[in-house]
Task: inverse folding
């Protein structure tokens, strides 16, 4: 009853890859927005916000993504909220990504020297102005390489959403395999498609890191 | 009426008392040199004046603002006080012109064109007109420090604080920065400068405060630099000359 792999299967895989991309984008945008709030919370002058953000990060980082997915997809309906696989996957990834990106960005915010905050303060800029006009533009430069690097993790981690039945790339591979049973061939193809999605991103991240390091060397040469 | 007044100011960091009851005052247009050995509390005193540090007791009044008052409008204080640090602290992501226009535009809500005019005028004062479009990293240390001074000046403060603004520079670059400060002093702006440049202090200061172990140990006209009354100041000046 097994048949050979055919163009229809390939097209099915590509559709899955498309959903993997959509999911990654949702995770990146949602998680980015959440992560921004987490980073602001972690560096806030208000103790309560700092604590809330830290607790959130600890809880999310201490929970496997798979469990977050189960909680959202199976847990919420049992409380009376029905939720589609796409939304469940998007929400779970958003929660997961916001904690990690939040921590990465907190580090970037904190790596802008305190003297920059102070110089802006002495010029009578308000705290919001200091943050948005002086600190964030510098933090964003520092944050770009690790953020792009983390995007690769996001793409790969979307594969976990296959367990709640969302048909992204991994799930598409599983479904095809169920019908033609060619696991080695199919998962090699799936892996190559993941590679094609991730490679440009990680290459870009490495280039950013190199040019960042080069700029830093140039800066040091100037100030030396 | 004094523009800056400190009365019995005490300040500790944890268990270390850095200011042990400091009093002095600066009159409008006066140039005050704050000297003393490393660790004597000069920077701390300056930072307290701009409320970058909170004091434990005593009183500071700057341009009519009671600095230690919890109700103080910090923005108004910062509008009246300009401060320049040893490490320039220019904003690296902005051009020199943008560094200077940032505060006038976002704090004083001045139009782009007008802010630009102000920036160019204050760059001219420090002799950096041709560097307006450069980034800080493209400037020498001395140029960066002059740009930092221009950035402060553009806010038209009533009093300028300088904290060892030439200490990070080699002698050649020090000269160009001191020249700018000297011109400022001549223009009549009130200033307090922490400095290790004794000859410079003697030339431009109206008043000298010598801090020693958290106290104002000796103060007076620049004469005290040539004929100190206390042995501590005599020793300090001796050390500075060698
Ligand atoms: N934020 C701080 N936390 C703890 N200790 C501090 C802090 N700032 C200054 N100190 C300590 O206070 C003392 C006085 O420091 P301050 O910077 O005022 O001295 P200074 O007279 O400016 O010295 P220098 O000539 O070296 O700049 C020093 O012992 C310093 O270690
Ligand atoms: Mg100092």
Result:
């Amino acid at each position: 009853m097994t048949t050979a792999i055919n163009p229809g299967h390939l097209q099915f895989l590509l559709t899955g890859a498309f959903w993997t991309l959509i999911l990654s984008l949702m995770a990146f945008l949602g998680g980015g927005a959440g992560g921004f709030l987490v980073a602001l919370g972690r560096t806030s002058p208000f103790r309560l916000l700092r604590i809330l953000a830290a607790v959130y990060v600890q809880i999310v980082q201490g929970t496997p993504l798979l469990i977050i997915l189960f909680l959202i997809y199976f847990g919420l309906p049992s409380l009376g909220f029905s939720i589609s696989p796409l939304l469940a996957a998007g929400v779970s990834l958003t929660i997961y990504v916001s904690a990690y990106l939040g921590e990465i960005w907190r580090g970037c915010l904190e790596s802008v020297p305190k003297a920059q905050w102070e110089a802006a303060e002495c010029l009578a800029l308000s705290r919001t102005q200091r943050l948005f006009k002086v600190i964030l533009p510098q933090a964003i430069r520092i944050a770009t390489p690790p953020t792009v690097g983390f995007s690769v993790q996001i793409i790969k981690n979307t594969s976990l959403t296959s367990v709640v039945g969302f048909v992204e790339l991994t799930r598409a591979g599983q479904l095809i395999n169920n019908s033609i049973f060619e696991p080695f061939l199919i998962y090699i193809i799936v892996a190559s498609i993941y590679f094609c999605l991730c490679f440009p991103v990680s290459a870009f991240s490495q280039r950013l890191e190199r040019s960042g390091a080069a700029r830093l060397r140039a800066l040091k040469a100037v100030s030396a | 009426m004094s523009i800056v007044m400190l009365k019995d100011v005490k300040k500790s960091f944890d268990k270390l008392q850095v200011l042990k009851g400091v009093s002095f005052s600066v009159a409008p247009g006066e140039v005050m040199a704050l000297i003393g050995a490393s660790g004597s509390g000069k920077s701390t005193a300056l930072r307290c004046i701009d409320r970058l540090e909170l004091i434990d007791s005593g009183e500071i009044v700057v341009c009519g603002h009671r600095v230690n008052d919890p109700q103080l409008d910090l923005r108004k204080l910062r509008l009246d006080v300009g401060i320049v640090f040893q490490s320039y602290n220019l904003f690296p992501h902005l051009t020199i012109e943008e560094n200077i226009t940032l505060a006038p535009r976002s704090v004083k809500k001045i139009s782009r064109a007008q802010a630009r005019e102000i920036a160019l005028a204050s760059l001219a004062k420090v002799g950096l007109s041709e560097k307006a479009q450069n980034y800080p990293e493209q400037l020498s240390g001395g140029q960066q420090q002059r740009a930092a001074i221009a950035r402060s000046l553009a806010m038209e403060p009533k009093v300028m604080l300088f904290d060892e603004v030439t200490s990070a520079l080699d002698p050649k670059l020090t000269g160009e920065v001191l020249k700018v400060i000297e011109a400022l002093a001549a223009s009549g702006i009130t200033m307090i400068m922490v400095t290790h440049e004794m000859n410079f202090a003697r030339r431009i200061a109206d008043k000298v405060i010598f801090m020693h172990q958290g106290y104002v140990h000796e103060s007076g006209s620049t004469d005290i630099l040539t004929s100190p009354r206390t042995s501590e100041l005599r020793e300090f000046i001796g050390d500075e000359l060698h």
Observations:
- The mean pLDDT of chain B is 94.
